[in-house]
């Protein structure tokens, strides 16, 4: 019938949402393990089926049209509902199965979750796990957008829909390169160290927020430090310090092996209280989790003491 729309394929909706989120056809193709022509074909088919232009390409990348914005808002909800439906039905066949979508900031994502997920998969071997690792701000955004069911993060964010529950504790220390002369001194004055080159985490990082909060209590700020570069991951920070590019604030969990081997050195900075920060479970208040996410959340809380001490 003239004017009628063709059926919409869920795969095409998923491709469209990934392109809209990443603002790139090539990045979407990489994330979905598809070729770029396939991604372009999905979008073209979707636009033809709706008789609407959904995306514009310009110098700033890929932008949603007004119609695209409306579709994106409803498509994300639809895809989330589909996933919840499949996960819920999986309870009635061979136990819990399906895909578990989690978010985690760098420290819990790289140093806590792998061991926890290994133990959980021993109980539910049929599950597939997708973990989004980014800074705290990005994980919160993904949670609010419905991209992940809940997350583990190193800082709180102000939003009326979010709820935070303490899961573990993390200590942030100062590190330097191997054999740093500062490592042989005790109670080094902050003023002396502030003049040294520093490698800092990016805005939105839980580590940076925790350090800023601790410094603020002493009337100080990271802006007073001699920052030579910012890096967006803990691994990059470690390699930069090893290379002698500067000192850094970092999670003690992340450098235990390097400190034991002498690949990095711990710097004893005076004038600041120990920077202890909680690691939180963050979720959406009132949102119903899939059976798989509910089971994993129960598993986390039941074994909280064991995981927190690792």
Structure description:
The protein is α/β, with parallel strands linked by helices. Helix content is 45%, strand content 22%. It contains twelve helices and eleven strands. It has helices at 10-22, 25-32, 36-50, 66-90, 106-123, 136-145, 190-194, 206-216, 234-242, 252-261, 291-302, 304-308; strands spanning 55-58, 61-64, 98-104, 127-133, 150-153, 162-176, 197-201, 226-231, 248-251, 265-267, 275-284. The strands form three sheets. Strands 3, 4, 5, 6, 9, 10 and 11 form a seven-stranded mixed sheet that branches. It has a two-stranded antiparallel sheet with strand order 1-2. A hairpin with a 2-residue loop joins strand 1 and strand 2 (61-64). Helix 2 packs across helix 3 (36-50). The protein is globular and about 70 Å long. The model has no long low-confidence stretch (mean pLDDT 88).
The H-and-E topology, N to C, reads as HHHEEHEHEHEEHEHEHEHEEHH
Counting helices, strands and paired strands, the structural category is alpha/beta
Estimated share of beta-strand residues: 15-25%
Low-confidence segments: none
Overall pLDDT metric: 88
Could you give the distance between the termini?
63 Å
Fraction of residues in helix: 40-55%
Gyration radius from CA atoms, angstroms: 23 Å
Number of H/I helices: 12
């Amino acid at each position: 019938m003239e004017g009628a729309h063709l059926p919409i394929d869920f795969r095409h909706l998923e491709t469209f949402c990934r392109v809209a989120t990443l603002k790139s056809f090539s990045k979407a193709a990489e994330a979905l393990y598809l070729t770029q022509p396939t991604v372009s074909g999905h979008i073209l088919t979707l636009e033809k089926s709706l008789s609407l232009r959904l995306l514009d390409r310009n110098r700033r990348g890929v932008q949603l049209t007004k119609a695209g914005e409306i579709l994106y808002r409803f498509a994300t909800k639809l895809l989330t509902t589909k996933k919840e439906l499949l996960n819920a039905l999986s309870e009635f066949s061979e136990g819990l199965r399906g895909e578990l979508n989690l978010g985690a900031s760098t420290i819990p994502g790289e140093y806590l979750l792998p061991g926890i997920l290994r133990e959980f998969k021993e109980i539910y071997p049929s599950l597939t796990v997708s973990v989004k690792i980014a800074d705290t701000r990005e994980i919160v955004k993904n949670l609010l957008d419905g991209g992940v069911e809940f997350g583990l993060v190193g800082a709180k964010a102000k939003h009326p829909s979010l709820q935070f529950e303490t899961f573990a504790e993390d200590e942030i220390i100062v590190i330097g390169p191997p054999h740093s002369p500062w490592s042989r001194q005790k109670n080094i004055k902050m003023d002396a160290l502030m003049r040294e080159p520093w490698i800092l985490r990016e805005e939105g990082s839980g580590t940076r927020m925790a350090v800023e909060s601790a410094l603020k209590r002493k009337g100080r700020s990271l802006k007073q430090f001699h920052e030579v570069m910012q890096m967006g991951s803990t691994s990059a920070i470690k390699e930069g310090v090893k290379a002698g590019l500067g000192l850094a604030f970092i999670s003690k969990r992340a450098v235990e092996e390097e400190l034991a081997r002498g690949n990095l050195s711990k710097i004893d900075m005076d004038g600041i209280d120990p920077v202890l920060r909680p690691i939180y479970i963050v979720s959406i208040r009132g949102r119903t989790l899939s059976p798989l996410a509910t089971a994993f959340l129960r598993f986390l809380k039941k074994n909280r003491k064991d995981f927190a001490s690792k």
